[in-house]
Amino acid sequence: MIVLVVNAGSSSLKSQLIETEGKVCRMKCLAEKVGTDEAYMNVSFAPDFQKVTYNVAGLAVAQCLAKLLDIMSDDPESPISGLGQIDAIGNRIVAGGEYFTKAALIDDEARENLSKCEELAPLHNPAADACIDMMRKLMPETPQVAVFDTAFHTTMPPKAYMYPLPWRYYEQFHIRRYGAHGTSHRYAAQQAANLLGRPLRDLGLITCHLGNGGSITAVNHGKSIDTTMGFTPLEGLMMGTRSGSIDPAIVTYIMREEGKTFDEMDEILNRQSGILGISGVDSDMRDVLDAADAGNERAELAIDMYVYKIQKAIGSYYAAMTRTDAVVMTAGIGENSAKLRERIFAGLAHMGMILDKERNDFTGQIGANRIISIDDSPIRICVVTTDEEMRIARETDNLVSQLR
Ligand code: AMP
Fold it and tell me: Ligand 1 pocket, 332 CB below 6 A?
């Protein structure tokens, strides 16, 4: 089956065309800084994946997707000769609330329920819904599937997902922890089990998805038992532009002092905080690391805070589980930054997580999953390349095949 995977963010679009039988990717697309004057979209096709960059300034995320369809239809290098060759579309959806506990075919009812989930992930869900609507318009005959980041976390026990608020907020508004990045945590846990050569059901793992967004999950016997993201992807770690967990009283204090509206406060917490807010440099970790190297003290503080919050989260999940066999690092920062991994684990050796400097620094086989702890580290440390798109394509294939 040929599946177009669509992964829409507030200012980005990732897409791949995947042939599920052979697990091969035929097209990759990455649009970034969407909504700004510097917006660009890189598109590349198998076998060489030579990137061609398109200017997408002025376009919204869903319009970038429409442009990608035009490129795939017209480019002689394209692996398909027409859009009719795409069998299904797999959409990554960050929040499925209590409406969706597993991947779902998008019919009218599901589309309506997706709208109700938008406020749970205000940076991501609205962009994904706009892409779904665009595809329903442009390719109405092609089945679309929604694959949810929250689905993996539906195994959390009530003590992990309930908030200590008046009971009626759970009953009336379904306010509870849902988590996110579930597709990535599930995949990272399975890949770590493969690396350790043991069945996932026998393991206690702490999976760390550290990208622009970030979350850490306690995976006990293959099931998520707790995760740092909460009702929305704002809770937990400090992130690129998101504050992560702060004293909730700060929110009401700022609103009162500065007369901020709810939307303005949302914007401050989701888009102006985190690494960007503290460093004043950027939300992109590479730029912040460079600034810190050049002596920027706020950039250095941002990195210090970022590392400290990750260390505390790993420590708390070590306490939450009955055993911890490995800590797994994945996503942009987790996979690529040996420097940050070194800083994180420098503070965790006393818990039995002992990094091997040479293995950590080794970059010869980028993209390869590997163990980076010393041989007799009581708890192993793994690096896993996240492959969300392939997992979404496979889940889409499963669901659409059942329907046929
Ligand atoms: P993701 O959201 O998974 O695409 O990750 C994006 C984040 O990973 C950005 O903050 C990037 O700066 C960061 N990143 C990617 N490569 C590196 C690297 N080599 N060193 C540090 N950060 C990196």
Answer: yes
